[in-house]
Specification:
Elements: E1 2-6, E2 14-16, E3 22-25, E4 30-39, H1 43-51, E5 53-57, E6 60-64, E7 76-85, E8 89-91, E9 94-99, E10 102-110, E11 128-140, E12 162-177, E13 191-192, E14 196-198, E15 203-205, E16 210-218, E17 221-222, E18 225-226, E19 229-237, E20 256-258, E21 261-263, E22 268-269, H2 271-274
């Protein structure tokens, strides 16, 4: 995955009004407010340049960072609120819409809300966020040669010997996607053919221990058009691997075989390159 950060470039002609800026600290962060002035027709362009945006397609992104507050590390624009200045007039003759000569933009900066995902550097824009969720598999063990008491105790009945295999789900969410790669919907039920490493979680997943459960894409369509996709990929991690099985007399799961070799009902795929994981 390639992420290129670009510092904010304010090309719209604007100025800062007085009094200001105003700065304050709370228990969590530094915060500041500035008031900028620009032509009414330029307010949306300036707001976008202040807030930042993302271009590119998975897995390569160009991140246009929000505007930084001068001399304070990690303080980026978090909010922009425009309002009209001066005497209003009908917009191109439409009395239901007002127009102004200038706009006043109240710009909020803060160090709060720094992205915990992969954005590159100190980028406040999340590209990828990751998390772990508890999972479990309930299995029934073979009751052969097992009894409830020592020596000649009563044998186990069907369904008596149950066990829980504790697992964990790796939840990998990609934000700001403009396209949905075909591989996201083609590898359900596959396991990883090589080690996968999560940099933000500092955790390695050995070959055949990650089962891809599929993708959950979300998108919002507004009157302005379609927003970017947000896609969550879910993987279930089984410590001893998905192609090994519990066997009586062994402490850990074992492989099974057919006349043609090892039995692997879960096929393998290159998650790192096909799903473009880190």
């Amino acid at each position: 995955m390639g992420i290129t950060n670009h510092e904010a470039e304010l090309t719209v002609t604007h100025g800062e009004t007085e009094p200001g800026p105003f700065e304050h600290y709370d228990e969590d962060a530094f915060n500041a407010t500035r008031t900028l002035k620009c032509a009414w027709a330029d307010r949306h362009t300036l707001a976008r340049q202040l807030r930042g945006w993302i271009t590119g397609e998975w897995p390569n992104f160009d991140v246009h960072l929000p505007h930084r507050y001068p001399a304070v590390q990690g303080a980026f624009v978090r909010s922009v609120n425009p309002k009209g200045m001066g005497k209003s007039s009908a917009h191109n003759g439409d009395t239901t819409r007002l127009s102004y000569a200038h706009a006043e933009l109240t710009v909020g900066y803060s160090t709060k809300g720094q992205s915990q995902g992969q954005g590159g550097g100190d980028s406040p824009i999340a590209i990828v966020t990751e998390g772990l969720e508890s999972s479990a598999e309930y299995i029934t063990l073979s009751g052969e040669d097992l009894m409830w008491e020592e020596q000649d105790g009563p044998p186990l009945q069907p369904g008596d010997a149950t066990a829980v295999t504790r697992m964990v789900d790796w939840v990998y969410t990609i934000h700001q996607l403009t396209n949905l790669p075909a591989s996201f919907g083609a590898l359900e039920g596959y396991v990883n053919n090589s080690q996968v490493f999560s940099h933000s979680l500092n955790r390695a997943f050995d070959p055949e221990t990650l089962l891809y459960q599929g993708a959950s894409p979300r998108r919002i369509i507004t009157t302005e058009g379609a927003e970017a996709w947000e896609v969550t990929l879910r993987f279930t991690h089984k410590r001893f691997g998905w192609n090994k099985w519990w066997r009586s007399g062994y402490d850990i799961p074992q492989p099974m075989y057919t006349f043609n070799g090892e039995y692997k009902p879960f096929p393998q795929a290159d998650f790192v390159n096909q799903l473009v994981l880190p």
